[in-house]
Amino acid sequence: MDIVPIPALIVVLHNKEKAKGEPLTKAEVLQITNEAECVAMERAQHLEVIEARGYLDIDPENSWEGWQDARQDFKDLPGIASE
Question: Rounded to two decimals, what is the model's pTM?
Answer without folding.
Answer: 0.82
